[in-house]
Amino acid sequence: MAFVNKLTACSLLWLYGSSMAWAITESQVWVPKRYSEAKHKLLSTAVEAERSPRCVTAIQGSMVVEKTTAEAYYFVITCRDKNRKTYNLSYSYPVAGAMPSLLNEQYLFAPEPVVSSLQSAVPTISASAAWPLCITALQKQTRTMLNVLMLEDNPRPSDQGLPEQIFTIPFDAQNPQGLALRYQAHCAVDGQETITIKIRGRASE
Question: pTM of the entire structure?
Answer without folding.
Answer: 0.50
